[in-house]
Each structure stands twice: as C-alpha cells, then as structure tokens.
C-alpha cells in the first residue's frame, strides 16, 4: 500500500536522511587503498550505536531476495558486485570501484542512500559509469513532481542509461520509504513516460539507478547468498537518494556534503 506523508512527517524524516548522508560523506573521505570492508561496517555500527534513536535497517533483515538474515550494517559492493554486497575481510585495492548502500532508522523513520566511487587511481570508464548513475538520479529527481507519473521518473533514468549505451536491469530499483525501508511503490529504472501511478505531495521514495558496464544480467553470489554480481564480470555503479514529493520542488532528504 502506498502511504503519503504529511508535511510534519516529512520534517520528521529529515534527521534519518541527514544522518545517512553524513555517514556516507564521512566514509567516502576516509576510505582509501588498504581500507578493509569490515572497517567500513564497524564505522557504521559505531555511528549508529552512538546516535540516540538510531537503529540499523540491515541487521537481521531477511527479505525473500536474500539468503538468511543480513548480518551487517552497510552494503559494500566492489567492482563486479553492484547490490547487496556483504562486508568481508577484504582490503580495498588501487582502482577498486566501491558502492556503499546504507539505510538507517532514526526515531521511527528511515533514510536510504547509496554512493559509488573509485579508491585510488580511477579508470576513465569507471568514472563514466558512476557519472551515468549520478546523472540518471538527477534526471529522475527532476521528474519527481506532483502531477507527473511514476513512469516519468523511470523513463528519465532509462533515457540517461541509453544515452551512455548501458542496458537497464529491472529486477531491482527504487521503492517507497517511511517507517520501513522497502515499501510501495516500486520505482523501476526504466519505463514509459506519462504512465503509472500519479505522483502526489507526501510520497517519499528512494530513487536508485544502478548500471553495469556491459550487461544487464546479474547473479547471486552463492558464497554469501546476498551479493549481486554481473554475469560477465563487468563493473557496476549505484547511486541513490531518498526524496519527498511536495507541491513544489522535490526534497532530497539524504543530501550529502560533497
């Protein structure tokens, strides 16, 4: 069921969004060649434990698209992994493409966001891939206005992917956000403009373009039962914000200090 938030409830969601955005900004600054993925996970764990009213949306989360409960505080997806990457004992290498996806509940409201960046020296194609997801996110947010349709967001994302020559996987996309992390509606990363649910003030959604360099097919890593990887080993990038639709411009609740 799609739930619409009141202006007061959207204000109540701001602390969660700000907290998530700040953690991701801090992680991008501190992550270097040699940083261990478990260090990143522990940084988030400590941040949550030191913030009154904050709880992880990931620990013990057990949806049907995973294998068993998720046991960590953040998703860390490296290179050919693009979604749901489980932190493990791995020291990041020069040139690794890292995607971080984070959702936290603060005082009963969720903020959900993701960033991708290269550690150390960057391959131009990796930067191009990351840029495409950032531009697609901006295009999707621009369409997130009252009176438009859900398909307008999806089509804007898909158009950016096509302009870069990337195919789009429709298995996973954006979603409603509120008291829970994953709610209605589903927000595909491609679609038909002027079709679908009519956007209304109070709708809060996560918009999250993710693309792979040379394929749109993924598989679930059997070793951890969660991490989603490209079938051909090509790299992936993922960018996400939680936004609120209003009578005017959309509000980016997870805005980050860049």
TrEMBL record:
Its cofactor is Co(2+); Zn(2+); Mn(2+); Fe(2+). Substrate binds at residues 84, 182. Its EC number is 3.4.11.18. Signal peptide: none annotated. Binds 2 divalent metal cations per subunit. Has a high-affinity and a low affinity metal-binding site. The true nature of the physiological cofactor is under debate. The enzyme is active with cobalt, zinc, manganese or divalent iron ions. Most likely, methionine aminopeptidases function as mononuclear Fe(2+)-metalloproteases under physiological conditions, and the catalytically relevant metal-binding site has been assigned to the histidine-containing high-affinity site. It comes from the Bacteria. Residues 12-247 form the Peptidase M24 domain. SUPFAM superfamilies: Creatinase/aminopeptidase. A divalent metal cation 2 binds at residues 112, 175, 208, 240. One of its GO terms (molecular function) is initiator methionyl aminopeptidase activity. It catalyses: Release of N-terminal amino acids, preferentially methionine, from peptides and arylamides. Pfam families: Peptidase_M24 (PF00557). One of its GO terms (cellular component) is cytosol. Belongs to the peptidase M24A family. Methionine aminopeptidase type 1 subfamily. Removes the N-terminal methionine from nascent proteins. The N-terminal methionine is often cleaved when the second residue in the primary sequence is small and uncharged (Met-Ala-, Cys, Gly, Pro, Ser, Thr, or Val). Requires deformylation of the N(alpha)-formylated initiator methionine before it can be hydrolyzed. Monomer. This is Methionine aminopeptidase. It comes from Alloscardovia omnicolens F0580. The lineage of its organism: Bacteria, Bacillati, Actinomycetota, Actinomycetes, Bifidobacteriales.
